[in-house]
C-alpha cells in the first residue's frame, strides 16, 4: 500500500491543530502507520530540506522547522501521496483553496502548518529519515 510522510510544523503544533489535521486524514479513509511528536535538530532539518539548500529562504526554513516540536506521521492508503497534497492545499496558504489544511489554517508560506511528500521518491526518502521500520505498523501483517 502507498505511504507518505506528513509533518505538522511548529506553528500547527503550537496552535493545537494536531487533532484537527489528523482527523481530516482519518476521516478520508487513510491509515496512520506511524507518528511521533519530536524536536528536529539542524542536521535532520538540513537533510530533510536538502533540495532547497541555496534558496533564499533555506536558513529561515531550517530555523523555523527546528524552533519547536513537530508531529511527524506516516500515512498509508490508495494514492495517498497525491491525495494528501491536494488535502493540504497550495504551499502558499494565500493560494490554497478553502477546505484544505493550509487554506483553512495557514497564513504565510513559511508558517503553512503542514509538510507532505511530493512524490513516491521523496516519500520513501522522508519516511526513512524520520522513522525506523520497527516504528511503523504493517496493517497487512498485523490485522
Ligand atoms: P514545505 O512543503 O514544507 O516545503 C518547503 C517549504 O519551504 C515550504 O513548505 C514552505 O513552508 C517553505 N518556504 C518558505 N519560503 C518559501 C518560498 N518563498 N517559496 C516556497 N517555499 C517557501
TrEMBL record:
Gene Ontology MF annotations: ATP binding; metal ion binding; nucleoside diphosphate kinase activity
Names of the cofactor(s): Mg(2+)
Pfam entry (one): NDK
Family annotation (InterPro entries): NDK-like_dom, NDK-like_dom_sf, Nucleoside_diP_kinase
Entry EC number(s): 2.7.4.6
UniProt binding sites for ATP: 9, 57, 85, 91, 102, 112
Entry keywords, A to Z: ATP-binding, Cytoplasm, Kinase, Magnesium, Metal-binding, Nucleotide metabolism, Nucleotide-binding, Phosphoprotein, Transferase
Primary enzyme class: transferase
Principal subcellular localization: cytoplasm
Annotated function: Major role in the synthesis of nucleoside triphosphates other than ATP. The ATP gamma phosphate is transferred to the NDP beta phosphate via a ping-pong mechanism, using a phosphorylated active-site intermediate. (Microbial infection) Catalyzes the phosphorylation of dZDP to dZTP, when the bacterium is infected by a phage that produces the substrate for the synthesis of dZTP (2- amino-2'-deoxyadenosine 5'-triphosphate), which is then used by the phage as a DNA polymerase substrate.
Family to which this protein belongs: Belongs to the NDK family.
Subunit (UniProt): Homotetramer.
Name the record gives this protein: Nucleoside diphosphate kinase
Amino acid at each position: 500500500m502507498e505511504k507518505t510522510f506528513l509533518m505538522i510544523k511548529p506553528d500547527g503544533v503550537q496552535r493545537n491543530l494536531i487533532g484537527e489535521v489528523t482527523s481530516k486524514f482519518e476521516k478520508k479513509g487513510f491509515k496512520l502507520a506511524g507518528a511521533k511528536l519530536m524536536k528536529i535538530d539542524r542536521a535532520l532539518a538540513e537533510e530533510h530540506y536538502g533540495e532547497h539548500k541555496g534558496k533564499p529562504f533555506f536558513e529561515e526554513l531550517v530555523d523555523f522547522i527546528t524552533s519547536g516540536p513537530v508531529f511527524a506521521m506516516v500515512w498509508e492508503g490508495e494514492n495517498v501521496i497525491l491525495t494528501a497534497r491536494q488535502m493540504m492545499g497550495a504551499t502558499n496558504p494565500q493560494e490554497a483553496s478553502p477546505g484544505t489544511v493550509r487554506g483553512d489554517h495557514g497564513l504565510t508560506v513559511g508558517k503553512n502548518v503542514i509538510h507532505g511528500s511530493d512524490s513516491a521518491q521523496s516519500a520513501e526518502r522522508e519516511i526513512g529519515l524520520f522513522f525506523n521500520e520497527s516504528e511503523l505498523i504493517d496493517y497487512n501483517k498485523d490485522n
